[in-house]
Amino acid sequence: MIEFKAECGHTIRAKDEDAGKVVRCSYCGREAQVPENDQGELDYLFSELEASEAEAKGAPPGTVRRGRRRPSGVIGTGRPDTGFNPFALVLKMGYAAAIIIVLILVSTRVFKYWKSPERQQRSAERQAARKDEPDRDRSEPSQRKSAKLGLFAGKKLSSKKGGIYVNSVPSGAMIRVRPKGTGDAIEIFRDPQAQAYTSKGAIELPAGCYEVAVAVKINHPTLREYPDYVSFRRKIDAGGGKTVLDAYFLPDGADEVTTVELPYRPMLFVRKYKCEVIGKEWTPLTALFLPDRPISQLIKFLPRKDSYGFDDADVEWELDYYGVHPNDWKYITKALHRMGMVMYRSPTDSTYSCFMIHLLDGSMTTRSHKDHRKLPGRADGEAAPAQFRGKATGPPR
């Protein structure tokens, strides 16, 4: 039996011996040539596949019209729907086979590239380059270099101007500035001629010498978190003066540490400095209202974000030169990144080293400060208590 589609779309069924002859469609009445047997079967399968796809796409009933069922052997009869389409199954299997072939080809190319002599040669060259590098001990300084150098947070400092950049711990301190030698008999916080500032930042000033005072309130929230602060404050309220202040606070190069009481204001802790501005240069000033404790205990009281950039390897080399114990390097570099300054007790127990980061180029400078404080229970010239002290490591490596 030969089955094929007429021009009107209906299926015509003809006998095998009618192959090549002309028959008439029972639906539209037009003549149609009966194809060869194989071609007729193929056309029928294609027509059935199209009908199945149309129904799968949700075509409404009756849209896909099939030939009417007639007794076998009658020209123009339709084929009954059996519900099984072998050609669709073969087509899906062909798609799956094509995908598998593509995956095999891609994986073959990747494998050939991975095993290619060119890639293996490049890999061998990289390994040889690593072997040629000198072995580096883990205890040596790191090679991390900051992308930004100097002060990169807050107000940008102009290289065409100069003055004093004031910072403090805790932040939010009150600042007073006046030329040195004017109103020396007047407390700077009571001097109406003194310039007043209420936060850290750059203070543009002409060249000259200045007196700078930085103060925080005695009830500042950050101070209340310090160790033994309650007992220290009770001593201050009981009349304790310079000796009590020197025994508790970490020295930072201030010329004077005192307290000041203003009308209807909480008592202030005040640190006073003498600063010199040279031409169009910026002088850093960092007031440290920190307890005299090891650097590892003070990190938590510093700002959380970095404000200074520098080459860690250069700084760690300097720390090694000054005999700072390697265990403290990470704390000092972290403090320098956040504050740009840190005070460290030298191994001699009588000298503090002040490490500072340059505001513009990120280089580090070091200054030594003798500890001349007369602490309770210590005679003049006696070594200071073992606080904020680095362990001696011998001469620099």
Provide tags for this entry.
single chain; 397 residues; alpha+beta; 3 domains; 5-stranded antiparallel sheet
As residue ranges, the low-confidence spans are: 62-82, 132-141, 374-397
Indicate the mean pLDDT: 77
Amino- and carboxy-terminal Cα gap: 101 Å
Which outline best applies? elongated
Spatial sequence of strands, sheet with the most strands: 8-7-10-12-11
Offer a quick outline of the entry.
With 397 residues, the protein is an alpha+beta fold. The chain is built from eight helices and 17 strands.
Describe the overall structure.
This protein is an alpha+beta fold. The chain has 3 domains: 2-84, no CATH class; 85-117; 146-370, no CATH class. 27% of the residues lie in helices and 24% in strands. The protein has a 5-stranded antiparallel sheet with strand order 8-7-10-12-11. A 3-stranded mixed sheet has the order 9-6-13, with no helix packed on it. A hairpin with a 6-residue loop joins strand 16 and strand 17 (364-370). It is elongated and about 130 Å long. Residues 62-82, 132-141 and 374-397 have low confidence and may be disordered.
